């Protein structure tokens, strides 16, 4: 017995240590990719993106992308690289924008009753209680060119052009960051397409004391020329864990991705015109871009991501809002209707049974007993013939007497 117990404890310890090792490796691994762009920590620390919310606004010639990143890790600062098809301008976004979009696309809740009890309802709860591209580079142009640099709140923003992906590594090295080889290779298709880059040093003031970079950062708002709406996703193939994308698209009509680019089929969670927008949402819907499409997509295997999301108009501008049903058991006066129905039916059957029993007993008292059954005579014995009783003689009739 003791040998079996020791073997079981040894197996349990091995499983626990393996799980701890997997979780620790996932936690300390730097996330070089998020849904849009790449996050690069310094050489001694790690950072990863918990959540990314993005908005794409396209009016037919100009595109705007607003991103809000929620990050965590032990790095006091990091760099973030975003490829764009043309020269971009960058400014801080409005935090309230994502609250407004969340309210506009919130699902509709409807109540729905059901009759029979389900798992978790009595009496089952008792049993379950166990528990677009830019121009070509100039001849003789340097491999990297800083076309703009500014300070936006806590962010140091540099706008770069590069004729080779290694030039981006030079900029990162000069600013205290190391470009991983995998990211260098992933950036080459953008270099071949003559895209430009927005490189941002994320160093919020509150992390100046050495505290880790974390929480939801101020949104960044990029604007650039684009003949076709595009959302960069190619760098997300570097991720080692499943990725998810939540994307809001504002345009003149309802939009959709041209393909799944290696992920699950995108799910539309909302589609419709924005009515009476205010604040930052009103700014993005001005000029006819008031049709809002909200998309969710999962990437179980990021290595299969084949490119960027190219967006196109759908065949129709059909409106859609997700409906979430709140199922409640039908009750009457706090008592489940099924229990009332079943109890009433059983009571009715009991009443009928009692009534039938009473009637049968009463009838048994009124009915005279049946005559006893005469036994059959034995075989060969003559059967006694029935003889009627003898009749009494009828007296003779007297003749009538004389009249008078």
UniProtKB/TrEMBL annotation:
<keyword id="KW-0812">Transmembrane</keyword>
<feature type="region of interest" description="Disordered">
    <location>
        <begin position="365"/>
        <end position="404"/>
    </location>
</feature>
<dbReference type="Pfam" id="PF10092">
    <property type="entry name" value="DUF2330"/>
</dbReference>
<keyword id="KW-0472">Membrane</keyword>
<feature type="compositionally biased region" description="Pro residues">
    <location>
        <begin position="368"/>
        <end position="380"/>
    </location>
</feature>
<protein>
    <recommendedName>
        <fullName>DUF2330 domain-containing protein</fullName>
    </recommendedName>
</protein>
<feature type="transmembrane region" description="Helical">
    <location>
        <begin position="337"/>
        <end position="360"/>
    </location>
</feature>
<keyword id="KW-1133">Transmembrane helix</keyword>
<feature type="compositionally biased region" description="Pro residues">
    <location>
        <begin position="387"/>
        <end position="404"/>
    </location>
</feature>
<dbReference type="InterPro" id="IPR019283">
    <property type="entry name" value="DUF2330"/>
</dbReference>
């Amino acid at each position: 017995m003791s040998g079996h117990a020791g073997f079981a404890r040894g197996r349990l310890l091995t499983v626990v240590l393996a799980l701890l090792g997997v979780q620790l490796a996932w936690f300390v691994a730097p996330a070089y990719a998020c849904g849009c762009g790449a996050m690069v920590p310094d050489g001694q620390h790690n950072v990863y993106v918990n959540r990314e919310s993005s908005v794409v606004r396209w009016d037919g010639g100009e595109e705007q992308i607003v991103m809000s990143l929620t990050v965590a890790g032990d790095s006091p600062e990091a760099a973030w690289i975003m490829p764009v098809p043309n020269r971009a301008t960058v400014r801080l976004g409005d935090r309230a924008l994502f609250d407004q979009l969340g309210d506009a696309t919130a699902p509709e809740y409807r109540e729905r009753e059901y009759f029979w009890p389900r798992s978790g309802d009595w009496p089952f709860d008792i049993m379950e209680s166990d528990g677009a591209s830019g121009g070509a580079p100039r001849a003789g142009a340097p491999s990297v060119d800083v076309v703009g640099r500014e300070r936006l709140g806590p962010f140091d923003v540099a706008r770069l052009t590069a004729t080779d992906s290694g030039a981006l590594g030079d900029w990162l090295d000069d600013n205290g960051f190391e470009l991983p080889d995998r990211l260098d290779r992933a950036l080459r298709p953008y270099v071949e397409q003559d895209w430009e880059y927005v490189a941002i040093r994320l160093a919020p003031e509150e992390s100046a004391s050495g505290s880790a970079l974390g929480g939801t950062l101020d949104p960044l708002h990029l604007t650039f020329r684009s003949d076709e709406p595009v959302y960069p996703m190619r760098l997300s193939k570097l991720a080692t864990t499943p990725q998810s994308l939540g994307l809001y698209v504002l345009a003149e009509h309802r939009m959709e991705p041209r393909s799944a680019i290696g992920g699950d089929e995108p799910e539309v969670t909302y589609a419709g015109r924005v009515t009476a927008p205010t604040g930052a949402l009103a700014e993005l819907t001005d000029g006819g871009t008031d049709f809002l499409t909200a998309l969710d997509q999962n990437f179980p295997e990021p290595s299969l991501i084949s490119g960027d999301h190219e967006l196109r108009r759908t065949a129709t501008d059909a409106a859609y809002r997700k409906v979430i049903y709140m199922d409640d058991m039908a009750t009457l006066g706090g008592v489940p209707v099924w229990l009332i129905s079943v109890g009433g039916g059983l009571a009715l059957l009991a009443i009928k049974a009692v009534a039938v029993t009473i009637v049968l007993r009463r009838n048994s008292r009124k009915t005279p007993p049946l005559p006893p059954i005469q036994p059959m005579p034995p075989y060969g014995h003559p059967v006694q013939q029935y003889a009627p009783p003898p009749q009494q003689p009828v007296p003779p009739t007297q003749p009538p007497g004389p009249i008078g």
